TrEMBL record:
The keyword Disulfide bond appears for this protein: no
Domain DOMON: 42-161
Protein name (database record): Ferric-chelate reductase 1
BP GO terms, sorted: regulation of glutamate receptor signaling pathway; regulation of postsynaptic membrane neurotransmitter receptor levels
InterPro entries: Cyt_b561/ferric_Rdtase_TM, DOMON_domain, FRRS1L
Places the protein is found: Membrane
GO cellular component terms, semicolon-separated: membrane
Species in which this protein is naturally found: Mesorhabditis spiculigera
Domain of life assignment: Eukaryota
Signal peptide: 1-18
Length: 456
């Protein structure tokens, strides 16, 4: 009963959201709605449209449902990157029965209100839980670096939040979305009154893509490197390269490549964010620090730091025959595995909680779960084989290596038939893992890449 009443009320509220006309979207004006994938006049929280008029001005409509429609705002930010800070903002603010459109600029995380005739309000409304503003913005050079000329392409940020005691827009929390890079001058009419026809999908590759690609591929390298140390020690027993056994060469080389890639990815992340740390800060609010992005950042950093420390602690490992060597082995394994787990958790947070990162979030989530499952399964299967082997060895049936005289004088280490079989099985599992993991990683990267315009 209550549910039905609520549904009825919601339907009524949406039906009476008469201000925003979505029927012209993609015809005479361009529109973006948040959350991505929502259906206008059913489950969208923010409506934004843009239209150039006679090549001179841009008509902007920003509308939506703040959690508190009596003291809340919806806002659109025009950004050169996908994070908040250095954005030109148009906000529709309702407070104490008054609705007004404001022009602003975000310096860091705080919004500065700009007084300028570049933007004029055409209409403001507050009805049925919706706030709605239509404004006109002058195109061309505004003469103020903090008021962007909207005649071009920007990453669109949409947000809704409460109004503070001072009447100014407050922190939006999780209700903010990074929309695709959009040519906001691609709809409307030009100076001669002709309809503007322009390809509005200015897709660009970006550093964030390659960051993700690198981290994902680093993941495969490191995981494979770990597998070599754990399960491939007995392979190629008498082949050495640079004075060490082959498994160690694989282990060291793969993990070094992986660590190198995480370092490169980290540098790219910081460059992409203008060297700003997006993780927890001592002076940030509780909401900000608890935000998923903070948890993601701190987990990611921890995972990388632990991964980077691994080769360092390996340098100081004690001698092969030392009594303390098993302790080193345990610590090294523990940190290796925990770094991997933290990286998995950090990535999972990104996939589940970061809006607008993938062209299809559900597909990305499915692929990533498959990616982790393949790795987990590989680990378990190899571990089972290892345990079986270990029991066999304890029963004294198997001595892994046998000296066999092959011809005269070529006394090499030859592996017994059944041991060779196990090695072939392990190799097959490893190859299967690599094929699956690389395939899935590529698929996820394609999903990130398909997302129209991430970072330039
Ligand atoms: C907008 O940009 C186009 C080129 O992209 C240019 O031809 C036009 O003059 C610009 N309009 C204004 C008002 O600056």
């Amino acid at each position: 009963m209550i549910l039905r009443l609520t549904i009825g009320a919601v339907v009524l509220a949406t039906l009476t959201h008469a201000q925003f006309d979505a029927s012209q979207c993609g015809q005479t004006k361009g529109c973006l709605f948040a959350p991505p994938g929502c259906t206008p006049s059913t489950d969208c929280q923010i409506y934004f449209s843009y239209q150039v008029q006679n090549g001179q001005t841009m008509l902007i409509e920003i509308s939506g449902r703040p959690a508190n429609p009596q003291a809340g705002y919806v806002a659109v930010g025009f950004s050169k990157d996908s994070s908040m800070g250095d954005d030109s903002v148009t906000a529709c603010v309702t407070n104490q029965g008054q609705t007004s459109a404001i022009l602003g600029y975000t310096a860091g995380k705080s919004l500065q209100i700009k007084q300028s005739s570049v933007q004029t309000a055409v209409n403001t409304a507050n009805q049925n839980g919706y706030v709605d503003c239509v404004v006109r913005r002058q195109l061309g050079n505004t003469g103020d670096k903090e008021i962007f000329d909207l005649n071009g392409t920007y990453i669109i940020l949409l947000a809704t939040g409460p109004v503070g005691a001072d009447g100014a827009p407050g922190y939006h929390g999780e209700t903010k979305w990074v929309m695709p890079r959009t040519d906001v001058a691609s709809y409307g009419t030009d100076a001669q009154g002709n309809v503007i026809m322009r390809d509005s999908n200015g897709q660009t590759g970006g550093s964030k893509h390659s960051t993700n690609d690198k981290l994902k591929i680093a993941h495969v390298f490191i995981f494979t490197g770990i597998l070599f140390a754990r399960h491939f020690r007995g392979h190629w027993p008498d082949t050495t390269f640079l004075g060490v056994k082959m498994w160690f060469n694989f282990h060291r080389t793969l993990n070094m490549i992986g660590v190198g890639m995480t370092i490169a990815a980290f540098v790219l992340i910081f460059v992409a964010n203008d060297w700003r740390w997006t993780g927890p800060k001592a002076f940030a609010t509780k909401e900000e620090n608890q935000a998923w992005s903070s948890i993601h950042s701190i987990l990611g950093l921890l995972a990388c730091v632990v991964a980077w420390a691994q080769p360092l602690n390996a340098v100081f490992r004690c001698d092969h025959d030392s009594k303390a060597r098993p302790i080193f082995n345990m610590i090294h394994r523990f940190f290796g595995f925990s770094a991997w787990l933290m990286a998995v958790a950090a990535t999972m947070i990104a996939v589940v909680h970061f809006n607008g990162m993938f062209s299809n979030r559900d597909a990305a989530l499915g692929l990533y779960i498959a990616f982790v499952a393949v790795a987990g399964l590989t680990l378990i299967v190899l571990e089972v084989i290892w345990i079986r082997n270990w029991f066999a060895a304890r029963r004294g049936v198997s001595n892994e290596m046998e000296m066999v005289r092959v011809g005269a004088g070529t006394g090499g280490v030859v592996l017994r038939e059944d041991v060779q079989k196990i090695h072939r099985l392990q190799m097959a599992i490893l190859l299967l893992y690599l094929v699956c993991a690389i395939g899935l990683a590529v698929a996820i990267c394609v999903l990130i890449g398909l997302k129209p315009g991430d970072l330039a």
